[in-house]
Design brief:
There is one protein chain. The chain is of the alpha+beta class. It contains 19 helices and 11 strands. Among the domains are: about 130 residues, Beta Polymerase, domain 2; about 35 residues, no CATH class; about 55 residues. The strands form 3 sheets. It has a 7-stranded mixed β-sheet with strand order 3-4-5-2-1-8-9. A two-stranded antiparallel ribbon has the order 6-7. The longest helix has 17 residues. The protein is elongated, with a radius of gyration of 27 Å.
Length: about 400
């Protein structure tokens, strides 16, 4: 970093300046720089048009030409460069119907959602901050640019973003902004499930996952669950792995009565099949106590399933220690596999069920983990199954 901007971003901005255009870093990269964090990406704003930006750099992609955005690849980095603009009405409550390109950076910053995201930094490090974003960083406060109700009516996703940024940064939400979220919460029902899922996952994996409970209390999830806030404090002790945190969230929502069907809730938010399967399994499974029962559980179900169930039950640390201690024979290390059981006539679910029983038997020492012994035991189980 040099003069506030990353070297590649500064060089791109300098090229714009040399051509007679304005150039500023804007948005999250400015916020993170002021907080002493390394920005994940860099966005630049300019009074140059998309065509003028494309003419200055050899490699560009018009990623959002309608909104004045070009992605530039130069000097070893990638920037989205957007023409200064103001936005029109938001008929759909998510995106502006149209934009008008302007020449003033302050007018461009006025369209942004939160004051901490409405700052611009020139290549020499000078800050343009017309809405007090720097002061709000110092106060650790999330506040809307202008009237919060107007911002949320324009784009309902901004309500989730306000709660999420508070969680990620460890900030408080300004009282007027929080009150506007509560009033405008019904607008969240118009958001796509994918957007809600994305914001939820980022909150879950933030340093303050209880922000999801705060959002529930504000009414942002009324389209998906009853307004009963779950206890999500235990999630802070889990690894920041989305799978485990979705498992814990689903179980907590079931416990407090906010949802009745964990699988239906996850599907409504368009979670992937694996997460739906494991989170539903974890929320509906009673983990046995530590000791042989837990070792048998690990053998029958596998490490990932056991850790998901542990995340849901608030026992992740204990189960993780059991995994490391060993003393169990998981299905994955059995001396036989599904194809060999199929030669005995087993099909479908019977294959998986028999492998799980063999793993448990091997863990207890009831059968040696040897091919011949396991096949003999499997044949016995299949004969018993057919007689039943």
């Amino acid at each position: 970093m040099k003069n506030g901007l990353a070297v590649f971003a500064r060089k791109q901005a300098d090229r714009l300046l040399a051509a007679g255009f304005a150039a500023y870093a804007v948005g999250g990269c400015v916020r993170d720089t002021l907080l002493g964090r390394r920005p994940h990406d860099w966005d630049l704003a300019t009074d140059a048009s998309c065509a003028e930006v494309a003419a200055l750099f050899p490699r560009t992609v018009p990623t959002g030409a309608r909104y004045g955005t070009v992605t530039v690849f130069a000097y070893g980095g990638r920037c989205e460069i957007t023409t200064f603009r103001r936005e029109g009405t938001y008929t759909d409550g998510r995106r502006p119907d149209g934009v008008a390109f302007v020449s003033d950076i302050r007018e461009d910053l006025a369209r942004r959602d939160l004051t901490v995201n409405a700052m611009a930094m020139s290549p020499d490090g000078a800050l343009t901050d017309p809405f007090g974003g720097r002061a709000d960083l110092d106060r650790r406060l999330i506040r809307c640019v202008g009237e919060p109700e107007a911002r949320f009516t324009e784009d309902a996703l901004r309500m989730f973003r306000a709660v999420r940024f508070a969680a990620e940064l460890g900030f408080d939400i300004e009282e007027k902004t929080a009150a506007a979220i509560a009033r405008c919460a019904p607008l969240a029902a118009r958001l796509s499930a994918e957007r809600v899922r994305e914001e939820t996952e980022r909150m879950l994996c933030s340093p303050r996952p209880s922000a999801v409970a705060e959002a529930v209390g504000l009414g942002l999830y009324d389209a998906y669950l009853a307004r009963r806030a779950p206890d999500l404090a235990p999630l802070e002790k889990l690894p920041k792995k989305p799978l485990y945190r979705w498992c814990a969230l689903t179980a907590a929502l079931l416990r407090c009565g906010a949802i009745e069907d964990g699988e239906a809730f996850l599907r409504a938010l368009r979670l992937d099949k694996k997460t739906v399967r494991l989170a539903a399994f974890a929320a509906g499974t009673d983990l046995p106590p530590d000791g042989e029962g837990l070792r048998l559980f690990l053998a029958r179900h596998g490490v990932e399933e056991a850790l998901c169930a542990a995340a849901a039950a608030g026992r992740y640390g204990a189960v993780r220690r059991a995994v490391r201690a060993g003393g169990y024979v998981p299905v994955s290390v059995l001396a036989v596999g599904g194809r060999e059981l199929e030669t005995l006539g087993l099909r479908g679910e019977a294959v998986g069920e028999t492998l799980a029983r063999l793993a448990a038997d091997a863990t207890r020492g009831a059968v040696a983990n040897e091919r011949a012994a396991l096949l003999e035991k499997a044949l016995f189980y299949e004969k018993m199954r057919r007689k039943a």
